[in-house]
Amino acid sequence: TLEAPRQAPALTNLTQEELLARLQKGIRHEVLEGNVGYLRVDDIPGQEVVSKLGGFLVPSVWRKLMGTSALVLDLRHCTGGHISGIPYIISYLHPGNTVLHVDTIYDRPSNTTTEIWTLPQVLGERYSADKDVVVLTSGHTGGVAEDITYILKQMRRAIVVGERTVGGALDLQKLRIGQSDFFLTVPVSRSLGPLGGGSQTWEGSGVLPCVGTPAEQALEKALAILTLRRALPGIVRRLQEALQAYYTLVDRVPTLLHHLANMDFSAVVSQEDLVTKLNAGLQTASEDPRLLVRAVRPKESSAEPEIEIGDDDLPEVVPTVPGDEAARRALVDSMFQVSVLPGNVG
């Protein structure tokens, strides 16, 4: 069931102080542990508000997030907003060297379409394309917030974590039925979604997250994903060092190192994803099915050679040989079992 949008005073009738007060209620920001920026937006401001208050938003909000190593955009409580605000959010997360056509909006009452492009210039700086962005969603995320989530996902600019969005409408209009006291709320605008590769968009079906999790756990899950992704360069470096030091097929090592250096880890959101991708890539490059990477807990031991995947600060387990002869014999007995089977088979 679609509800009528909240009736609010026209923005043109509000003073700059009133606009600012409304904006501050719908936007929160902070820097979390691990230098992760957190930006919660509960109502997407439109072009009119941004043009009037951009001089406040950039220094007091955006500039404080620019130095972070990754960004979490929380849209779990965002149920609406203004279509004209879409290009602003997308543009600050899109590299500035090109403009990109991100959506086309069809408006039924006027029977017109409006193309939405990223902005060629923005006030302040754009968020670096080298930094990860995670968008949090819930079953209440709707309308303009869904379109932003969908665009960022299709651009492969953000990892969406949380619940499938509501699948609502970009714009609703409340219409009186004749001269009665009854009203009908209907969608009057829809996204044609040029980034979706067809007419099918998020409306009606919602945006499916990259990583599904209950909304109340989405932030915790996002931070775990960002911790893993922050460790990726160190993991790849240690893997390259291990191959150079230990892999017996030395003629294949240069190919493996080159392959590792050029692998695309943009879709890796879990340790399982990473292990699967590394094994597929290494075995393809080496043509050696025995070359395996496995993730192990720091204190877990194994009889098979393994390459540990984990944080750089995890302790490295170094095997030691006991000095006492009885202890050495006990160690050997625990590792090897020797017997002669029937038929004089060792």
UniProtKB/TrEMBL annotation:
GO biological process assignments: proteolysis
Xref: Gene3D superfamilies: 2-enoyl-CoA Hydratase, Chain A, domain 1, 3.30.750.44
GO molecular function: retinol binding; serine-type peptidase activity
Tree of life domain: Eukaryota
Pfam families membership: Peptidase_S41, Peptidase_S41_N
Protein name (database record): Interphotoreceptor retinoid binding protein
Keywords annotated in UniProt: Receptor
Occurrences of domain Tail specific protease (ranges): 15-214
Gene Ontology terms: cellular component: cone matrix sheath
Coiled coil regions, renumbered to chain: none
UniProt key word Membrane: no
